[in-house]
Design a protein that fits this description.
mainly alpha
Amino acid sequence: MITWLSDNIGTIVISLILVAIVAGIIFKMVRDKKKGRSSCGCDCGCCALKDSCHTKK
């Protein structure tokens, strides 16, 4: 077990860093969604989905 761990420590560290980055991005997107913020660039005039993304209430 120790040999396997020492042979793959680089892969394990990189994987943990990538998982932390993805989790942080998802957490921020969920938090922004709850606050009513958009995740798009908000240049809605040029967007093809401008009518369906920010519908009028």
